[in-house]
Amino acid sequence: MDAALTEALRPALRVGLGLSFYEKMLAAAGSGAAIYDPSDLTSLYQSRTGGSTGAADSVVGIMLDKARMGNQTAAAFIAGQTELANNGGFDADTNWTKHANATISGGKLNVVGAVASGSPVATNDAATISPRWYQMTYTIESITGTVSLNVGGTTGTARSAPGTYTEILYAAAGSTFAIQSRGTGVTAAVIDNVSVKYIPGYHALAPSDAARPILRSASGLYYLDADGVDDRMTIAPTLNLGSQWWGVGGWQSDASGDAPFGLTNQEQSALSASGKWTWYDTSTTQADLVSATITSPHVLTVEQASASALSARVNGVDGLTINPYDGSSPTNGLGLFSRENDAFAVGLDGRFYGGVWAPGALTAANRAIVERWVASKSGVAL
Amino acid sequence: MSFSRSLVLIVPAALKDAANAMGAAAIGWSGDNLSVPLSASGAAPATHYACHAWAQDIAVAWLTGTPIPESMGVPQANVDALLAQITVSADAGLAGGEHFAAAIAAAGLQRIEA
Fold it and tell me: Which contiguous run of DSSP H or E holds residue A179?
């Protein structure tokens, strides 16, 4: 059993053995869930390629899903992941397919002549799997020119200066990782200590730098503040919740705020705001889900028991059940802060304190546990 | 570093690609940052594109006249030529969404809703 699966199953294996509340929440959410917790600052990255982790009043380019990380911070989880790079320390002239102008000697990868931009300087023989997220780290001891990481066809940030760089990259396709020449090419470099680690989960990525929400902190709570202009996050790999699903989130909609999340590329498959939280019941009309105010922090639970029954609860109190509109042939997949999962459409101007989404049904007992956890992140009483 | 500066950029449609490219070169922004289509009537086609972002002091400085260091490799003349044709609004004392609404209204533009 691999380490990630063992960690994911750990809460279930320990049922009845003195689980922490968070472990009970992980078990209640189930193995197919996505869990976002802005209060774990190590699960947030300011850049869309990793780097600095979350801090109050800093933008958020990546928010990691913690559902498969057990009862620990994202940083601790990633640190404990298996090292995938073979001979990442360049201790021997093995495991790397090198460009003609690259050598491995002295325990380093050395670029000793021009490598054209776009060409690999060296490719590791360990296969990566796509689509998956990886944390990659490497040290550039000296450089003339520009290089970057490349994992599964996704290129990292171009680097032209010495330093140790850690990046979080989504490998959408492809099966190799490499050091790649970039910009106008590289003519000389000394590189060492390459590390590659798999980060399982459905992680959230802002599609551009301007689309990054900002992390705020107040009264010991943390939340992502989306501007309602262009902020949104896509989930990768695609989290298709199907026709039976549930989501529990800590939300606040500001006066003009609208959609906290959408499930397809059609605006009707989304939670919306019209003074109250609503959902489309026809292609052009929306039905109320809850009657409570939405402009203060609250825990909102939305459950779709079947294609014809969608219900909601606010702060643990039952709302209404509607027959949701079923669009034709949508492109499924969770997206945050927009009605549509592939574009900004009447997105949220408001706060996200954390939340959990999963396919399938939610039992009353598990619902109570998940709602209690989200309430603790949102500062509200159930 | 704090991203304390509320920033709105409004760019003529013809300059959208150039502005995205300049953003990548000068302040390291990637993706399609100018994703909000605008027009005077609020109907398509878009005559301008815009964004709202939270930015660091240095990015706002470079967008409001402070020269970009030569080491960045971005010719200042190119930056100046682009800045002369776009609208940069920083720190209007409003929340992000309200800042954006005020900036596009001041430019005589409306958002084109999908």
Answer: strand A177-199
Q: Which of A190, A196, A352 is nearest to A261 (CA)?
A: A352
Question: Which pLDDT value is given to residue B74?
Answer: 83
A47-59 tens-digit pLDDT = 999 989 999 999 9
Q: Mutate which of A214, A215, A227 to test chain B, going by most B C-beta atoms within 10 A?
A: A227
Using the Cβ of B45 and the Cβ atoms of chain A, whether some distance falls under 8 Å is answered with no
Lowest mean pLDDT among A15-24, A281-290, A312-321: A15-24
Greatest alpha-carbon pair distance for chain A in Å reads 69
Q: Which two tokens stand for residue A366?
A: 């598990």
**Which among A247, A259, A267 has a CA at the least distance from the CA of A354?**
A247
Residue A176's pLDDT is what?
Answer: 87
**How far is CA A240 from each of CA A237, A244, A283, A292, B110, rounded to the nearest angstrom?**
9, 10, 21, 29, 34
Q: What CA–CA distance (Å, rounded) separates A367 from A3?
A: 28
How far is residue A105's CA from residue A278's CA, in Å, rounded to a whole number? 63
Distance CA A182, CA A201 (A): 29
Question: Cα separation of B85 and B54, whole Å?
Answer: 22
Q: What is the pLDDT of residues A127-180, one digit of tens each?
A: 778 899 999 999 999 999 999 999 988 899 999 999 999 999 999 888 889 999
Provide, rounded to the nearest whole percent, the portion of chain B with pLDDT above 70.
Answer: 97
DSSP string, A327-353: -SS--EEEEESSSBSSS--SB-EEEEE
Q: Cis ω on the peptide bond leading into residue B69 (within 30° of 0)?
A: no
What pLDDT digit, counting tens, does each position of B56-91 carry?
999 899 988 899 888 777 889 988 999 999 999 998
* A 113-172 → B contacts, CB under 8 A: 157
How many Å apart are CA B36 and CA B59, to the nearest integer? 20
Interface confidence: ipTM more than 0.90: yes
Tell me how far apart the alpha carbons of residues B76 and A347 are, in angstroms, rounded to a whole number: 36
Contact A344 B52 (CB under 8 A): no
The rounded distance, in Å, linking the Cα atoms of A77 and B20 is 36
> Looking at the predicted structure, is the pLDDT value of residue A2 above 80?
no
pLDDT at A153: 85
Q: Would you call B3 and A214 a contact, using CB atoms and an 8 Å cutoff? A: yes
B33 touches chain A (CB under 8 A): yes
C-alpha–C-alpha distance, residues A273 and A279, integer Å: 8
Distance CA A150, CA A128 (A): 11
Structure token digits, residue A375? 């309430």
Please tell me the distance from the alpha carbon of residue A373 to that of residue A382, in angstroms, as a whole number.
10
